[in-house]
Amino acid sequence: MKLPLFLSSGPADTHEDFSELVQRDRVHGATYTSQAVFDAEMSRIFHRTWLCVGHEAEIPNAGDFRVTRLGRQSAIMVRGSDGKVRVVMNRCRHRGVSLTEEETGCQKRFTCPYHGWVYDNTGELLSVPDLSGYGDLNFAEYSLTPVPRLGTYRGFVFASLSEKGVSLDEHLGLAKGYMDLFLDVSPIGQIDVRSGVNKTTFRANWKFVGMDGYHPNYVHKTVYEVRRRKQPAGVTASSKGEAFSDESANLTRDLGNGHAMLDVYPVRSANYTDYLESMKGKPGWDEYYQSMVTAYGQQRADEILVWAGDPHIGVFPNLQLIGSQIRLIRPVAADQTEVLMFPTLLQGVPDPINQLRLRNHEAFYGPASQGSPDDVEIFERNQVGLSADVDPWVLLARGLDRERVDADGSIVGSITDEVTQRGQLKQWKALMGAKA
Ligand code: FES
Ligand SMILES: [Fe+2]
Q1: Is the minimum distance from the CB of 92 to ligand 1 under 6 angstroms?
Q2: Residue whose CA is closest, atom 4 of ligand 1?
Q3: Does the N-terminal or the C-terminal CB of the chain have fewer CB atoms within 10 Å?
């Protein structure tokens, strides 16, 4: 499949200070609509901080690769024939032509289409046609360019286009514990990411794709009504309707560094016994449950399984772990965004458990599903609404006076509060001041 040709280097950073667009209780519409702000986001956020490139499980075999974008720059995540995962710029070292326009594939070598330079899948330059014209070319100096910084956390691959900055460990902070939960739903802590990807491009700003616990009962009203009707007796409180009301025990959580989540543990936990009862005897379930208890012990297994039903974790700026999907957000312009959703499978579980994961993903997040298309409509309507700038400030104040600091240092509020938006925009504000 061909990649869309929308890459451009964009204008140089104006060094204008945009941090005042976000204030304690409100945010200026230009944060979402201004192309100048978008250009600054590319240089100050996407070309500087840690971005998630994907997960190593997407490329399990030697030569497997995926082409990705780091802000405006094209890069290749590739597993070399030495087994090592690298992220290199998708740029020939001769005169800079992109080495592949395929989105994904498996290759021993990358051959530049312009003059035929050939690179190994480890990035090493292997051959140059008509070499004599160069005199004494030192091949070792012309390997594919690696990203300045590369890091992994449990198979999640992160890259930074800046040589300087906080370590990946420091950047991820509290988000790591929740990434663990996403993976530990497998009794061997491993996922498969080879079930394809569903993609959406929409006419709205990338920051709308956030963690919002206030909208489900309105945007997804019909879905939840249908689900509630179909629910077996006794499992009522795991329905979304209760999960996302202001009376719910569920929480919004600001994990720091722009990471934020909808914490649906409290309601799911209260209904866990009923949930287990409803799952008993379902294909593959008993075997799966027992393997979780054997792997992690009863208490941790139950804790993971409470979480497993509905994670909503945002890792700033471009990764989200929602349901069973790894979601990558690619800003294209102030008013255009591409979202890639990779449904994941669990290693070490009976097939029916994975089939259930896929069916659940398709039902809510697939292209013709009950959920995502409605979200996208709201994002686009948000963009339309904010094009009116006569009174440009919008609210960011919900729950401001009732948020509190939790034992782990995260900031929590009611599930309907704007704790998550404030957390994400706090990091945005910190990065969007005049460039040093
Ligand atoms: S630009 Fe790649 S070989 Fe010339
Ligand atoms: Fe939604």
Answers
A1: yes
A2: 115
A3: C
Calpha distance 87→81 (Å, rounded) = 14
Which ligand number lies closest to the CA of residue 111? 1
Whether 316 and 259 have beta carbons less than 8 Å apart is answered as yes
- pLDDT, mean of residues 4-15: 64
Phi, psi of 249 (to 5 degrees): -80, -10
Helix (H, G, I), strand (E, B) or coil at 269: helix
The angle that helices 285-296 and 351-365 make with each other, rounded to 10 degrees, is 100
The helix or strand, by DSSP H or E, that contains position 158, with its residue range, turns out to be strand 156-160
Kindly state the percentage of the chain with pLDDT values over 90: 87
Closest protein CA for atom 1 of ligand 1: 95
264 lines ligand 1 (CB under 6 A): no
Q: What's the CA dihedral at 360, 242, 292, 320 to 10 degrees?
A: 60
> How many angstroms separate the CA atoms of 111 and 121, rounded?
10
99 in ligand 1 pocket by Cβ < 6 Å? no
| Residue identifier of the C-alpha nearest atom 3 of ligand 1 | 115
The model's confidence at residue 5, banded by pLDDT at 50, 70 and 90, is: very low
Whether residue 435 is predicted with pLDDT greater than 80 in this model: the reply is no
CA of 148 to the centre of ligand 2 (A): 35
Nearest ligand 1 atom to the CA of 95 is: 1
User: Separation of 117 CA from ligand 1 center, angstroms?
Assistant: 6
Look-up: residue for tokens 């999960």?
A: 243
DSSP string of 321-364, one letter each residue: EETTEEEEEEEEETTEEEEEEEE-EETTS-HHHHHHHHHHHHHH
Q: Is the CB of 112 under 6 A from ligand 1?
A: yes
Domains of the chain: 50-161 (2.102.10.10), 173-431 (3.90.380.10)
